[in-house]
Amino acid sequence: MKIFSRRLIQFAALVLTNPFAANFFDGKLYRGGLKNFCAPGLNCWSCPGAAFVCPIGALQTGSFYAAGTVILIGLLLGRAVCGFLCPFGFLQDLLNKIPSPKKILPRALTRVKYFLLIIFVLILPAALPLGQPTFCEFICPAGTLEAGLPLIAAHEEFRAALGKLFALKISVLIAVIVGCVVVHRFFCRVLCPLGAIYGLLNRWSFWQLNFSEQACVNCGRCKKICPLNLDPTKENNSAECVRCGRCVESCPSKALQQKFSAQ
Questions:
Q1: Which residues partner with 260 through β-bridges?
Q2: Is 255 in contact with 8 (CB distance < 8 Å)?
Q3: By 3-state DSSP, what share of the chain in percent is helix, strand and coil, each rounded to 5?
């Protein structure tokens, strides 16, 4: 998959997920029938342009439908959703294009998203009396960017009610933006609970990155070009692989291929 083609798919997914762009001007929210369905990627329910519900937001309500949808999408595509269909993933790709010294992320930090999934998405919302969506409320930078800031800009009464929680959310957003500029897919790799779920399903998804050891010429190009610092010849089923396809494009012997395949 050529990088230009992937960018077109990412842009199309952004538009299809957020078709009500006119709502950004008046701060209205779409509340029609499409809000009964989950978007495949991370996209805030309260975003004025959003047509669908965010799967992480829905999971925090204890929705069996949301859980089933996420598992189904994960089994079909794995983290290819992150690489192709997630609006916030698309933004991270663009942020990383900003010229800056780039850093390699310590592997240990990729485990943080599993902690956030277990504590802030599964345990706390179920344990708290009001079933608070704790990840959305205290952490999610996508919600702050896509919903919080546009709604505050459109509604004066919201601006009058800003407090410490908003300051916390803005701080998280700024930290994530800076992180995404210097580390490729910082939020995906460290903080995203949806990426954690899809990553766990990467190994069993129908969309696979296949490696042929017989065809490999050991040139090392795939490892050098991988933006996530993976070795596709050894980690083609890694939970961190977003199936961006750069390794496939770089392989001179076609030892790496992406396609639907039965497990």
A1: 207
A2: no
A3: 55, 5, 40
For residue 261, pLDDT over 90 is answered with: no
Number of domains making up the chain: 2
Crossing angle of helices 164-182 and 87-95, rounded to 10°: 60
Helix axes 193-201, 64-77, angle to 10 degrees: 50
pTM: 0.94
pLDDT digits (tens, 9 = 90+) for 151-189: 999 999 998 889 999 999 999 999 999 999 999 999 999
Residues 214, 104 share a domain = no
Q: Give 117-152 pLDDT, tens digit per residue.
A: 999 999 999 999 878 899 999 999 999 999 999 999
Point out the domain boundary residue: 154, 183, 202.
202
- Please, which residues have CB within 8 angstroms of residue 159's CB and are 6 or more apart in sequence? 152
255: CATH: 3.30.70.20
